[in-house]
Write a structure and sequence with these properties.
about 230 residues, alpha/beta, Nucleotidyltransferase, domain 5, 2 domains, five-stranded mixed β-sheet
């Protein structure tokens, strides 16, 4: 299976082609960024497709990160994935950023719990906790960082994601801090790998926001109705 993976949800803009028969990405393009994904994405996709010597009709499916993450970034990636899928008549699947962050560590050491945490601002994190063999102990949610620390410490979990530093700063036992990877975005190859394994009907390409947007419509200039 050939999978085009797209990630614009967090602090990178990335695209990769994954070949499930080889078990590896055959092409990958990525650039760190917190904004500007809309302008960067299509050139990155075109570069990955060119590197893999493929056209879109040769793909078997498209995978895209669906959040949690930036509202704008998610819309950019999901719109691109849906558009390519529609034009090439290929299925599109969604992959959560939390699962993609945790996946390489669960694969490396399946018996060890992993806590994926993304900085949600205002002393909150987007959080998911995995136990041994990847069993979900806490499903994706946004919670105060103190609650995330209690859950991760109770499970003796390693930490991954941009929220890891916030958690280690208030860890209950500073002398025994957990292993922490503070990366700001998942490895695009793992987004692709999870996309290849996903069941399309159970993994729709729909945003996983977990909370309402910070922006609100301005109403001060609206005239009252008569």
């Amino acid at each position: 299976m050939l999978v085009l993976a797209i990630d614009t949800a967090l602090e990178a803009c990335s695209a990769a082609i994954f070949d499930s028969e080889l078990g590896a990405a055959v092409a990958s393009e990525s650039a760190p960024m917190t904004r500007g994904h809309a302008e960067a994405l299509m050139p990155l996709i075109e570069g990955a497709m060119r590197e893999a010597s493929l056209d879109f009709f040769a793909l078997d499916r498209i995978a895209v990160t669906v959040g949690p993450g930036s509202f704008t970034g998610l819309r950019v990636g999901i719109a691109a994935a849906r558009g390519i899928g529609l034009a090439a008549r290929k299925p599109v699947v969604g992959v959560t950023t939390l699962s993609a962050l945790a996946a390489p560590y669960l694969a490396e050491e399946p018996s060890r719990p992993v806590a994926a945490a993304i900085d949600g601002r205002h002393r909150h994190v987007y959080f998911e906790l995995y136990g041994a063999q990847g069993r979900v102990l806490l499903a994706p949610r946004i919670i105060p960082v103190e609650d995330a620390v209690r859950a991760a410490a109770g499970a003796s979990a390693r930490l991954v994601g941009s929220g890891a530093r916030m958690m280690t700063e208030i860890w209950p036992d500073p002398a025994h801090l957990p292993t922490a990877d503070e990366r700001g975005a998942p490895d695009i190859a793992w987004v692709a790998r999870l996309g290849a394994q996903a069941e399309p009907r159970e993994s729709p390409p729909k945003p996983l926001y977990l909370r309402p947007p910070d922006a609100h419509p301005q109403t001060a200039s609206i005239l009252p109705r008569r």
